[in-house]
What we know:
Blueprint: H1 11-16, H2 23-42, H3 47-72, H4 78-91, H5 93-107, E1 119-125, E2 128-134, E3 143-145, E4 148-150, E5 155-156, E6 159-160, H6 161-164, H7 171-194
Antiparallel strand pairs: 1-2, 3-4, 5-6
Amino acid sequence: MQNFNIxxxxxxxxxxxxxxxxxxxxxxxxDADNAFQKMVTTGRNNSYVYERYWQGFLQSIDxxxxxxxxxxxxxxxxxxxxxxxxHLRKKDQLLKYLVQxxxxxxxTISDVITERDMDFNARLxxxxxxxxxxxxxxxxxxxxxxxxxxxxxxxxxxxxxxxxNKKGVEEPRLVATLAMxxxxxxxxxxxxxxxxxxx
Length: 199
């Protein structure tokens, strides 16, 4: 399979092609992307709806991994790739957080995001007034699963999250974007390693 492109490849067309080995994982990735796109369009308008789309994203992005494992578990060469990606999912702050946040949304009634309005402050300084503000956001909350607390990620793949951030993008959108990039790359890597076309 040539590399999968979440933005350009048509899932309905891909699904008709029985030769695509990771099609079930790709479908879940597309579902995660659809939930993400709905988060973007919902924006500030409705926190309940936004949270539901975030939960849908968490479910689908975790299923990408589950469907990949289910399809590849008996393939020659999978053990090395499985080890690599299992290690990343356990050690990388962002990936580990997503797994645990998905578990919390599935098995508890705890919140994983909150609403924060613009924090506007005015204070007197030597030559007048200084205005400060933080833009609106929906910050991720620490999640507690089986007695362990998992804070929102501060790093991803060895880089601080702040290096990825764009001003005005709420935290769940940033984390979702990075997760989508990771799992698209993972699907392409696994496909290219395990399902090379016969030449």
